[in-house]
Amino acid sequence: MSDNVTVDSERLTRVENDLEHTKDDVHEIKTDIREIKESGKAVEMAVIKLAQIAETNQRIFPRLEKLETKVEKNSTRLATWGGGLAVLMFVLSKYGHLLAS
Q1: What is the sign, positive or negative, of the torsion defined by CA atoms of 80, 86, 89, 94?
Q2: In the chain, N or C: fewer CB atoms in 10 Å?
């Protein structure tokens, strides 16, 4: 025995429309999830690159500090010698004629 079901055509049309909207919404959700996954991968790659940069900086920083210390010492020495030479030149220019005679 078969059961015959009669459905109002307007009601069936509404159900079909609702189903189409639901199908579209599911498609949008899938697209959004795909985009989120892709952006998550990009963020992961950026974090990896930043970690590599940080690691490199940790190796370079102590050497850079030593170099800065050496430059500072050399600048101080140069300033000292330059000042000494300036004083010597002043004295020689002022009193050099006494040494020549």
Answers
A1: negative
A2: N
Indicate the pTM of the whole model. 0.45
Q: Which amino acid is at 47?
A: V
Q: Distance between CA atoms of 31 and 82, rounded to whole angstroms? A: 71
Q: pLDDT tens, 4-53?
A: 666 678 888 888 998 999 999 999 999 999 999 999 999 999 999 999 99
The CA distance from 40 to 34, in Å, is 10
DSSP assignment letter at 1: -
Per-position DSSP letters for 74-99, written without gaps between them: HHHHHHHHHHHHHHHHHHHHHHHHHH
Run of H or E including 6: none
Residue position matching structure tokens 């040494």: 99
Q: What is the pLDDT of residues 3-17, one digit of tens each?
A: 666 667 888 888 899
